[in-house]
Design brief:
Blueprint: E1 3-4, E2 8-12, E3 16-21, E4 25-31, E5 34-36, E6 44-47, H1 49-54, E7 63-65, E8 68-69, E9 72-73, H2 76-91, E10 96-97, E11 101-105, H3 111-124, E12 131-135, H4 136-143, E13 154-159, E14 164-170, E15 173-180, H5 184-199, E16 201-202, H6 205-215, E17 226-233, E18 239-245, H7 246-270, H8 273-282, E19 284-287, H9 296-304, E20 308-310, H10 317-327, H11 332-337, E21 341-342
Parallel strand pairs: 1-10, 2-11, 11-12, 13-19, 19-20
Antiparallel strand pairs: 2-3, 3-4, 5-6, 5-7, 8-9, 12-21, 13-14, 14-15, 16-17, 17-18
Helix pairs in contact: 2-3, 4-10, 5-6, 5-7
Amino acid sequence: MAIVAPDLGIDLGTSNTLVHVRKKGIQLNEPTLLIVAGNQRRTIKAIGQDALQLVGRTTGGDVAVRPLQDGMVKDFELTEAILRYFIRKAIGVSNLLKPRIYITVPSRVSPVEKRVIREAASSAGARRTAIHLIDKPFASAFGSGLPVFAPEGSMVVDVGGGTTEVAVISLGGIVVARSIPMAGITMDSVIVDFIKHDHNMLIGDRMAEDIKIDWGSALPVKEERKVVVRGRDLITGLPQTVEISSLRIYEALHGPCLKILDTIREVLDKTPPELCGDILRKGIYLVGGGAQLYGLDRFLASELNLPVTLARDPMLCAAAGVGHMSNNADLLPKLTRSNFMRDETD
């Protein structure tokens, strides 16, 4: 006799995918990444954490691929493969009935893109009639403990890997939202670019991310420091070591920070006056992996003259939000009526 599979909440991100299993909590947190053979069959060599360990170490034409770009599906087959990997790893491959799944999507997702994500999830093993697509900023707000169903406004800024989403939420729905294809991966890219420009040296994405985490800042550098970076000389092709300035890292990251700031201002400008008072009182909530850039909360607070609170576990908020939904079946009718809920009839 088949056993009903537990409901799953999946935060499907450009950089990382997190899976919440009903009544168990967040069980998986791995890169949204595959190593694919450079042949016509596109054989998958590794997925998730295993793939990350092989980045920069592959041979024979194998390439690292992220199947999502700016939060959207850019490769259907590989998105299906990575969803299947996470679903099977979360619930196993026994004779369980297919699970109900809640999946986060960018707030700007189109009907066509919704169908693509739904088809990929269904092909990967989800129950076709129980695939719910949920706006990521709502899931993040819900997961961070904001009163999303209350008659008051809450503003959340979700800085992910591929996108930054800014939304004002009230009465179980999104009142106004903006999404830009600029987030953590963009920050890594500007670090790669300035080192290439200044030093004629190419570094890998993982090195750029490490520099961002260890030395990146949204605030002006008080004391300039030198950072040793290793890469490949673009002229000689040989390994090279250079010193870069922490001030130069700040300057490179300032552009992405300003874009986030401009998007917040745009959303505030479109927010109804009645809800602006709530935001003035409560401030802005900062979530997402990219929100952990040093000083980003203080930079935004200073520029906007508003309180900005960084969530305790900013990277886990969206997964926690869809997890709350999977844990509380009585919320489903209420969720389906809300304008953030993308049900299977869309």
